[in-house]
Amino acid sequence: MFDIYFFLLLFPIGFFVGQYLEWRHYQSIQKREEKFVNLVATSSKEPIGEFSRIRDIRLVQGSAVISVDYFKRILAALRGFFGGNVRSYETLLDRARREAILRLKESSFGAIEIVNLRIETSSIYKGKGNQIGSVEVFAYATAIYI
Amino acid sequence: MEYRSVLPKKNHNVSHANPIKEFLTLFSALVLLILLAYWSLGFFIDFAIENISTETELEIIEISGVSRELINQNPGFNDLAKRLNDLLSDLNQCAGINYSTELFIDSSASINALALPGGKIIVMQGLLNNIQSENGMAFVLAHELAHFKHRDHLRKMGRSAVLLALSIAATGPNSKLSQILTPVNILQSAKFSKDRETAADSAALDFLYCYYSHVGGANELFEFLDKDSKDRNFKMPHYFSSHPEAKKRIEMMQSFRLKRGYPIGLTKKLILD
Hints:
The structure holds 2 protein chains of 2 kinds. Chain A is an alpha+beta fold. Chain A contains 3 helices and 4 strands; from the N terminus they run αββααββ. In chain A, strands 1-3-4-2 form a 4-stranded mixed beta sheet. Helix content of chain B is about 60%, strand content about 5%. Chain B contains 13 helices and 3 strands; from the N terminus they run αααααβββαααααααα. Chain B has helices at about 20-40, 45-50, 55-65, 70-75, 80-95, 125-130, 135-150, 150-155, 160-170, 175-180, 195-210, 220-230, 245-260, and strands at about 100-105, 115, 120-125. Chain B is elongated and about 110 Å long. Classes of the chains: A alpha+beta, B mainly alpha. The interface of A and B includes residues 4, 81 and 82 of A.
């Protein structure tokens, strides 16, 4: 019986708090993306454009761990039963990916360009069915300084 | 050509559909599915209960919470209880229940015996005081064994038993799902439908014949109850009230006996000390 009260409590909390936090995160992501829009970050192995004098080349990285709320987890479980697009996890991964790239850009201060950008994803709750799922996205790249 | 970085106008990596709407659609589909499964379970429930394994049966009984306190209060392991337990296990050779059965004596004066699921039988002192022959006692025990044999406790749970068995098979007895599906103390009371009682009487007669090679004493309790109710001029207020009335049961037993050609032999006296 306790489980049901627990569920009824967490479900709306998960929904409202989760939606609010997600909205706030997206606001922050958009603002920072606009700020860094001129710092080119590509998956190209060669620099794009010609630089007369390259001063430094560095490995830069950014990582973000984001968790999904209770509501989304239930929704994903239902989706897991019927199959189809797990829409409730899409924003989780989108936010983590963009946050990781933003952190990478923030940590490569002064770079003229970022090349060879790679992204890795891993889930951090394997085997523990009752835990809220969280995901880590790790972005790494080569920053070019002139 | 020069590379120009621009932010996308729209995020195409996430769906913009309403999550509440998605939830309601999926949830109602699931509820519908469960209702459909539950409803269709009713059609093959007898078949399913026959085919549940003994292990699953015992697990269902275990997690359904049989009154342990009741048993713990009544260790009752005197000489009589020991002899009755021997009688019970001998009868079980005929009944063929493949888990252990145990008998406890309760000191209350009511003329009553209880079959708790999982092979536990509680015999009230009042019953012992009013039964004269070992054969009469053996019939009562055989009747309770027949309830175990027929899995009447599970049958009484009905669809929940099948749901629980499926859940145990899929997720194990300690999973949350199994615990949620467990009906609260449904196995406690031993009131079965009259059909199940008649079926138990019928099987008990076979067990009795198998053990003694005759069915003398089978009706002893019914005859006593019939007389008792006439003397007191009211309907029996105890456990046997859920059973078909004593007189009808005597008639039914008679017809079972004649149909199967079981003879009536001499009964042994039940020694109480």
